[in-house]
Amino acid sequence: MLKVGIVGLPNVGKSTLFNAITRTHKAEVANYPFCTIAPNVGVVTVPDTRLGQLDTIFHTGTTIPTTIELSDIAGLVAGASKGEGLGNQFLANIREVDAVVHVVRCFEEADVVHTAGSIDPIRDIETVATELILADLETVAKRVEKTQKKAKSGEKEAQSEMALLDRLAPHLNAGRPASTLAVHDEEARLLRQFQLLSAKPVIFACNIAEGDLANAASQPFVAAVASYVKTHHGAAYLPVSAKIEAELGDLPPEEAREFLRDLGVADSGVAELIRQTYALLGLITFFTHNEKEVRAWTVRHGAKAPQAAGVIHTDFERGFIKAEVLACNELVRLGSVAAARESGKYRLEGKDYEVADGDVMLFRFAT
After folding, report:
1. pLDDT of residue 260
2. How far apart are CA 215 and CA 272, in angstroms?
3. Distance, CA of 297 to CA of 278 (rounded, Å)
C-alpha cells in the first residue's frame, strides 16, 4: 500500500488533520511541541463517486474503494538534520513514505502557541525544506564517496550517477529541493535510488481558520503560500480547516453536508486533499465487478493491462490473454454493459494497452 506522511512544524494542526482524514481520534492533540512522537498510522479510502454510479448499474450492494496509508509524523524544528528535537526520528519516518502532505499554519489564534512566536507560513515552509535539503546533502556526499571510485574505473552506471550527483549537489546547496531538478527518464530512475527526502512529491495543506473557509483563496497567508510553492517547489496547495474537518468527522453524512453548506463550502477539504494526494503519486483507478461487489483498484499512470491484472492476482498477469475494457463514463451514460456492446464501446485489448483512469475491466487469462 502506498504511504503518505503528514509533516510540518509543531502546533500547525498535523494531528488534528490526521484525525479528520482518518475519521479517528488516534492522534493526541495538544498545545505543545512534540505531542506526536511515534507516528500515528491510519488507512484512508479515496473518495470516488464512480463506485456508486457503477453499483447502481450492477446492483451488488457492496463497493470497495482504493486506499492510502497515512502517517502523522512528529513535528520538525530547525536543526532537525543535526538531531535537534525529534529530528532523527522525523527524518527516518519521512524516508519511509511515498509522498508528503506538508501542513502549514495559516491562522492566528492566541491560545495555540507557535514555536517561532509568530505566524509566517513562508518561513515555516523554508524551515522544513531547509532541514530536508541539509539531510539530502549529507546523503549526496556519502553517495559521491561511494560512487567516485567505481566511476573512475569506467563503470557506466557509476559514471551516470556521478554526472547526476555533480548537478544535484549545487542545486541542493542553492536551497532548492531535489524535486525541482530537471532530469530525463534515466536520471529520474537514478534519483529514486538515492531516496532523497526533498525529492518526494509534496502537496501543501494550508490550515486556515473556520471563518476563512468560504473565501480561502483570497486569504493573505493562503495567497502567499500559493505563489511561493508554485515558484519554489513546483507544487500544489489546498486550503483546509483541520478544526472544521475534525468536527465533520463526528457528524452523520447528511448533517456534515448541511454544516458545509452553512459555511458556504461545497465539499470537504479532506476529501479533495485525499484525491489530490492520490493524483500526486501518479496513480489512477480502474474498476472490476462481479455478482458480489464493485471494486476500485490502483495502478500507476502508464501501467499496461497485464500490470493491472497483476494488481488483482499475480496469476492474472502471468497468464494474461486479453482484457475486456469499457470506460466508466460511457457505461454510466449508456446504462448497461449490453448497451455498451451494441454501441461499440465495449472492446478487447491486448498486452500493450495502457490502462486509462476509470476503465472498467474484465481479464481473460490462462491458468
Report:
1. 80
2. 16
3. 12
